[in-house]
Design goal:
- InterPro entries: GAF-like_dom_sf, HTH_MetabolicPath_Reg, Tscrpt_reg_IclR_C, Tscrpt_reg_IclR_N, WH-like_DNA-bd_sf, WH_DNA-bd_sf.
- Keywords: DNA-binding, Transcription, Transcription regulation.
- This is Transcriptional regulator.
- One of its GO terms (biological process) is negative regulation of DNA-templated transcription.
- One of its GO terms (molecular function) is DNA binding.
- With 270 residues, the chain is α+β, with helices and mostly antiparallel strands.
- The chain folds into two domains: 76 residues, Arc Repressor Mutant, subunit A (Orthogonal Bundle); 180 residues, GAF domain (Beta-Lactamase).
- It contains eleven helices and nine strands.
- The strands form two sheets. Strands 6-5-4-9-8-7 form a six-stranded antiparallel β-sheet, sandwiched between helices.
- A hairpin with a 5-residue loop joins strand 2 and strand 3.
- The radius of gyration is 21 Å and the shape is globular.
- 30% of the residues are buried.
Length: 270
């Protein structure tokens, strides 16, 4: 265990080892909303228990960590919600996109999602709940979504570098698993899917991530025609079958075009 700790300390700025270790514990705890036992946390972080306990005490004194109901377990506090919201509100894109997303939400009555891309994930940075119906998706602001099984994720793959998808498929082979019977896990099938997305300007999640829920997503372009954001509408598959894709596609594309315009893309450039 000691060797692992020394290995983790390599290439880190002098005097910052505790900071990096503390951040590592925070990231691990974020996956355990009901709490993670100290022993398991120590194993996951590859640190000895005394080191983990000392770091947890420091985080607890600052109000970021608290003991969980289960004895010997710890969880994050709601203080991270406040920090996260402040971080998101500082992004100009939220202020730019919010009015257009709110108008889309009112016009369709359905769940509206807005994401950005970070490395090999789509990150949900804004979400509006449906104004009609009772369906609430499991998605939440700050959620990291895999690219291969989400509509917005497929948008990023479709409009990314041509060599990216094969590399992604190889490096994430262990993570690419069938979440439902509709999940695309074949690179050949995904290549066909992405070609169709580029042709139509639309990506769909056909119950590939969550049974009973479908999603339509379109790209948002910046002034350089890069796709770093995506907009989507989520709703029950049954309801989508009743109202049809076309009823949602027009306002969805108009919203993406409006946000793209705010980011400098010339009218008619999408």
């Amino acid at each position: 265990m000691k060797d692992a700790e020394n290995e983790q300390g390599k290439d880190k700025p002098a005097g910052s080892q505790s900071l990096f270790r503390g951040l590592q514990l925070i990231e691990i705890l974020s996956n355990y909303p009901n709490g993670c036992p100290l022993a398991h946390l120590s194993e996951l972080a590859e640190l000895n228990k005394s080191t983990v306990h000392r770091l947890l005490q420091g985080l607890q004194s600052c109000g970021y960590v608290t003991p969980a109901p289960a004895a010997g377990s710890y969880r994050l506090t709601t203080k991270f919600i406040s920090v996260g919201q402040k971080s998101l509100s500082s992004l100009n894109i939220i202020h730019v996109a919010a009015p257009h997303l709110e108008a889309l939400n009112i016009a369709t009555g359905e769940t509206v999602n807005f994401s950005s891309r970070e490395d090999d994930h789509a990150i949900l940075i804004y979400k509006l709940e449906p104004t009609t119906g009772m369906l609430r998706t499991r998605a939440y602001i700050g959620q990291h979504m895999p690219l291969y099984c989400s509509a917005m994720g497929k948008i990023y793959m479709a409009y990314g570098h041509q060599d990216y998808v094969p590399a992604y498929w190889e490096s994430h082979s262990e993570q690419i698993q069938p979440l439902t019977r509709n999940t695309i896990v074949s690179l050949k099938e995904m290549d066909k899917e992405l070609a169709q997305i580029r042709q139509q300007g639309l990506a769909m999640d056909r119950e590939e991530n969550e049974l009973g829920v479908s999603c339509l997503a379109v790209p948002v372009f910046d002034i350089h025609r890069r796709v770093t954001y995506a907009v989507s509408i989520s709703l029950s598959t049954a309801k989508l079958g009743v109202i049809g894709e076309e009823a949602l596609l027009k306002p969805l594309k108009e919203t993406a075009a409006a946000i793209s315009g705010e980011l400098g893309l010339k009218v008619g450039g999408v």
